[in-house]
Design brief:
The complex is a heterotrimer. By secondary structure, chain A is an alpha/beta fold. Chain A contains three helices and six strands. Chain A has a domain of 95 residues: OB fold (Dihydrolipoamide Acetyltransferase, E2P). In chain A, β2 and β3 form a beta hairpin. In chain B, 24% of the residues lie in helices and 0% in strands. Classes of the chains: A alpha/beta, B mainly alpha, C alpha+beta. The interface between A and C is large, with 61 and 71 residues.
Chain lengths: 152, 93, 658
């Protein structure tokens, strides 16, 4: 389209005026502060995502290191102390088993075969002390519906 | 049954798409006529009364201000050449 | 079968929208008006078929036609009608159809509203962009995510809705978010149309404003409702967990906020044109990214929906849309050149710019945090997750800086402000802040974060309220009006500005809730038997009785508590723990006593057959202000959005007299 062709240097002469460097410096300072905040905040907040088998493979080296472990809740080994709100259970995957202790009310989604992600540290006795217990909800829910529905 | 309904739906769609092409360029879209008496402080498009410092109509967004005499393109005001058609503007301002 | 017709309608919607996009572009390029008219008809047909498909899906849901897989998975015989209707957007396929419906309806509004002379060059490209988005969504619905897929036989009962989603917040939270995402298509379409048609950006940016504002409003409501749903329904006493799904709605909100502010400066001063265009494009892209995150399963999340190939459709669309539009913008960047450069750091323009950079920085923090596990998997072969501490340490300071700017920016003048002017206007808020901090110290609120949070809230509130006062006083002097009339008139005359300031006040109230509940949250837990009484955190809790009921879709276990305050106020709280048959799962219902000073939040954590129950009590100061602040934000946005009706209605009469 010819109407959109522009002749260089003929429009808005003021536009070619360069921006004062002090504002570019200001922009860079803000960008630098944001990057600094991101990098400095990473420390202490990172946790490796591992499967039960991967954690087991690390052996004693894993003790005390903050990690997230995902696995499936084994219904046979759930103990819930209602008085003190202590939840003990095992999560398993196809090649490993990890005993977990969690302090807090038993989450609603928590049941046999639920897919769980625990965040915390392995203690010297080989028990995983979870500070956070996440259970995947709607996915399991939709998948369950799908499983019921798919045979036909 | 559903095949027939689907074919009817598809037929309607094709008819709607083809109708303007079949009519050709004859039925030109009527351009909205600007109101007969517009004062300088009014928007040329919708007639809204404008504040003096409004460069664009806050209702319909029509630019208020100089336009290129050749192509009618809205101008910021300080161009020497029309950015649309390249016409020289110096004398017109 | 009627579902087949729904599928046919989707197929036709895809074809019509695709054709419309082609016809618009070709018609405009080759100057063939009849082709453009044909494109408009194609657009209308696409909308018609999308509406038809949506109505068919609704009909199938309401008639509980379980042979349709989507109906089977989301509806059951015992589900109340309101939730049957909300099942339309509860699942993946339905929510995508809902999104397509919203984009189509918004496009229809554009088709019938942008018809004035100045809009003519934009119109074909505007509708073409919308049609491309429609065609993409329709393609997704036709191929990987068909809502009309059938089961081989017809089950007698459906699976039903996830009980966690049976909550008023959940009826409204997803659709409001989707409305926000869908409406952001229109500002994006305007930017593309502006670039392609070569119109000066100031002209069409004025048209975009109200679309952006509406989209932003719905996104805000969606986020707040989501927080409220998490607080009420998830039963851990929190409202925001920095979960990838939550984050993905916050990122476009932050960038969209920056875009609104940049556009405000552009319309008043004619600068930041490129910025506004880039931010508008990015906001749309981030809305698509949000869907990609929720639907692809690339990033681990508590919400994690089914992992599906769908995500890759969105990824490809996202890359193409962003690369294409940003590339076009770069090629045509001269049309977006600014008239002049900034003059001084002490100017309102500079204040807006800094605020914008901070908002984008905050969005970058959340974005990086969200994709961090995927990034580390890509580069180190091992997923590394980030916890909430990361966001608190990085997002917190940026948020604080943004909040402080709320207070400084409105008192800055355009072009430049002298330090003396600034000091004169900020001295009162500063004194107020010192007073508030002194009061807090004396009354025992001594946590540093609380002092910083409440102190800056006081500073900003003081500065904003004085801004209202200054405007009203000027009017009282010049027009001799009484204070209330003057205040209303001043707000009514410049709704954009004062609406914006009211939104800022709403954000301050939310900050009160965040700081109060974040710093001073207390937790208690105890075991009680029916009939027992206990004093906890200034409340007297009496466990009256234990109720067990069998309802059609659940077994209800409720504990009735009588909670009283020393001043005599009494409230009955009923925390429950229910077993839902359809999912064979427990669902807790918390009970909350909300007062302006604090929320008293009760969770039934455990229950024995003799009725002895383990309760968890949470004390969350100032929580109520978070929801009030959300309401204030909505009102402020509506005020800024509302068309200037009074003047418009008077205008024709005035002309006639002249």
């Amino acid at each position: 389209m010819t109407t959109e062709e522009r002749m260089p240097d003929m429009e808005m002469p003021a536009a070619s005026k360069p921006r004062p460097t002090k504002f570019i410096v200001g922009g860079f300072i803000i960008a630098a502060v944001v990057i600094y905040l991101i990098v400095s905040s990473l420390g202490g907040s990172t946790a490796y995502y591992l499967t039960v088998a991967e954690l087991m493979a690390k052996g004693p080296a894993a003790v005390g290191e903050k990690v997230r472990v995902s696995g499936v809740v084994d219904g046979a080994n759930i103990q819930y102390d209602q008085q003190n709100l202590v939840l003990r259970f095992d999560i398993v995957d196809n090649s490993g088993r990890l005993p977990v202790v969690y302090h807090g009310p038993r989450p609603d989604m928590f049941q046999d075969q639920a897919e769980a992600v625990v965040e915390g540290k392995l203690n010297a006795n080989g028990v995983f002390e979870a500070s956070n217990l996440l259970l995947k909800c709607p996915s399991k829910y939709e998948a369950a519906a799908t499983a019921t529905a798919s045979p036909r | 049954m559903q095949i027939i309904i689907f074919l009817l739906m598809a037929g309607l769609t094709i008819f709607m798409l083809a109708y303007p092409l079949w009519q050709g360029g004859a039925a030109a879209r009527p351009a909205p006529a600007p109101a007969a008496t517009l004062s300088a402080g009014q928007c040329a498009t919708c007639g809204r009364v404008l504040e003096p410092d409004e460069r664009f109509c806050p209702q319909c967004g029509t630019p208020v201000g100089p336009r290129c005499p050749q192509c009618g393109r809205a101008l910021v005001g300080d161009e020497r050449f029309c950015p649309g058609c390249g016409a020289k503007l110096e004398g017109t301002r | 079968m009627i579902a087949d017709i729904g599928y046919g309608a989707l197929l036709l919607a895809f074809l019509s929208a695709g054709y419309a996009a082609l016809a618009f572009v070709l018609g405009q390029r080759r100057r063939r008006p009849e082709l453009i008219r044909s494109g408009e008809n194609g657009f209308r047909m696409a909308v018609l078929w999308v509406v038809t498909a949506s109505l068919i899906l609704l009909y199938l849901l309401v008639s509980r036609d379980y042979q349709v897989r989507y109906v089977f998975e989301h509806v059951s015989n015992t589900l109340p009608l309101a939730y049957v209707l909300s099942a339309f957007w509860a699942g993946q396929e339905g929510s995508l159809l809902f999104w397509l419906l919203l984009v189509s309806l918004a496009g229809l509004v554009v088709l019938y509203s942008q018809r004035d002379a100045a809009a003519q060059p934009l119109r074909p490209y505007l509708l073409a962009t919308t049609a491309i988005v429609q065609a993409f969504m329709a393609l997704v619905l036709v191929l990987p995510s068909n809502p009309f897929a059938l089961l081989a036989s017809r089950p007698a009962d459906g699976f039903g809705l996830n009980p966690l989603l049976e909550n008023v917040g959940m009826i409204f939270h997803p659709p409001t978010l989707f409305i926000g995402y869908a409406l952001y298509t229109i500002p994006f379409a305007f930017v593309l149309a502006g670039i392609l048609s070569g119109q000066p950006s100031d002209a069409w940016m004025a048209r975009v404003r109200r679309w952006s504002l509406m989209a932003w409003l719905f996104l805000s409501i969606g986020i707040i409702l989501g927080a409220w749903w998490a607080y009420i329904e998830l039963g851990w006493g929190g409202y925001w967990a920095w979960d990838p799904v939550e984050n993905s709605s916050l990122i476009p909100w932050l960038v969209g906020t920056a875009a609104l502010h940049s556009a405000a400066v552009q319309s008043r001063r004619g600068i930041f044109r490129t910025w506004t265009a880039v931010l508008t494009i990015l906001t749309f892209g981030l809305c698509i990214f949000a869907t990609f995150v929720t639907r692809s399963g690339v990033i681990q999340s508590v919400h994690a929906f089914e992992r599906s190939s769908l995500g890759w459709y969105f990824a490809v669309f996202l890359v193409v849309a962003m690369a294409g539009s940003l590339g076009l913008l770069a090629a045509r960047r001269r049309a977006f050149a600014d008239n002049y450069a900034l003059e001084s750091y002490l100017s309102r323009e500079a204040g807006f710019l800094i605020g914008n950079l901070l908002l984008v920085g905050a969005a970058a923090v959340v974005f990086l945090g969200t994709i961090f596990p995927a990034l580390t998997e890509l580069f180190r072969g091992q997923q590394v997750a980030l916890d909430a501490g990361f966001y608190n340490r990085s997002f917190g300071p940026i948020g604080l800086a943004i909040i402080l700017l709320f207070g400084v920016c409105p008192v800055l003048l355009w072009h430049r402000t002298t330090p003396a002017q600034l000091a004169r206007r900020l001295i009162v808020p500063a004194i107020l802040t010192a007073l508030i901090i002194a009061v807090l110290l004396v009354t025992g609120w001594r946590e540093p974060i609380a002092l910083v949070g409440f102190g800056s809230t006081a500073f900003v509130a003081g500065s904003i309220l004085m801004e209202f006062g200054r405007g009203a006083r000027a009017r009282m002097r010049s027009a001799g009006e009484n204070p209330l009339t003057a205040l209303l008139r001043v707000v009514g005359r410049d709704r954009r500005r004062y609406g914006g300031l009211i939104v800022h006040l709403g954000v301050l109230l939310i900050v009160l809730g965040v700081v109060g509940s974040g710093v001073y949250k207390q937790e208690y837990q105890t075991v009680m038997k029916p009939g027992e009484t206990l004093d906890v955190a200034g409340y007297t809790v009496q466990y009256l009785q234990y109720v067990e009921q069998e309802l059609p879709h659940k077994q209800r276990f409720a504990t009735i508590l009588r909670v009283s305050r020393p001043n005599g106020a009494v409230r009955e709280l009923v925390p429950e723990k229910n077993f839902h048959w359809n999912v064979e799962q427990w669902v807790s219902e918390v009970a909350v006593w909300s007062r302006p000073a604090e929320d008293f939040y009760v969770i039934l954590a455990g229950l024995s057959s003799d009725g002895s129950a383990t309760f968890q009590f949470l004390q969350e100061p100032l929580m109520l202000w978070m929801w009030i602040g959300g309401g204030v934000m909505v009102l402020g946005t509506l005020l800024a959005w509302w068309p200037a009706g009074e003047r418009r209605r008077r205008a024709p009469a005035d002309t006639a007299e002249e």
